[in-house]
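TA notes, week 10

Several of you asked for a full example with nothing omitted. So below is the full record: structure tokens for the whole chain, then the designed sequence directly under it. When grading your own attempts, check the secondary structure regions first.
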């Protein structure tokens, strides 16, 4: 098992991975770091956990879209080309912020119990 230290959002994180997967892990961390950099460039000033959550939600949204496209292709359906925006959609950012606040409220409620 290999050990890689990745830098995301200005913080170093040691992460274990299978031997030979170090470069792939580093590339994934770079993608997450780019997302966090974009959020910061938009003026978002949150802690590390929240920035990681927002970046993860963006990636999960894209993964869900890709899974839907794959399912449509497997079913023989046509897939409409969805352009990937060069800059994050402010409406999406607002929705993600709302979702993050809801998640934080739920987590706070669970911590109290």
């Amino acid at each position: 098992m290999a050990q890689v230290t990745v830098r995301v959002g200005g913080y170093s994180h040691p992460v274990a991975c299978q031997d030979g997967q170090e470069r792939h892990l580093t590339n994934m961390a770079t993608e997450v770091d780019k997302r966090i950099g974009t959020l910061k460039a938009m003026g978002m000033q949150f802690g590390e956990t929240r920035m990681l959550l927002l970046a993860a939600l963006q990636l999960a949204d894209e993964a869900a879209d890709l899974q839907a496209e794959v399912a449509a292709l497997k079913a023989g359906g046509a897939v409409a080309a969805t352009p990937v925006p060069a800059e994050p959609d402010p409406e999406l950012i607002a929705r993600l912020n709302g979702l993050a606040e809801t998640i934080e409220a739920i987590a706070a409620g669970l911590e109290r119990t």
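The chain has one domain: 2-112. Use that as a sanity check on your answer.
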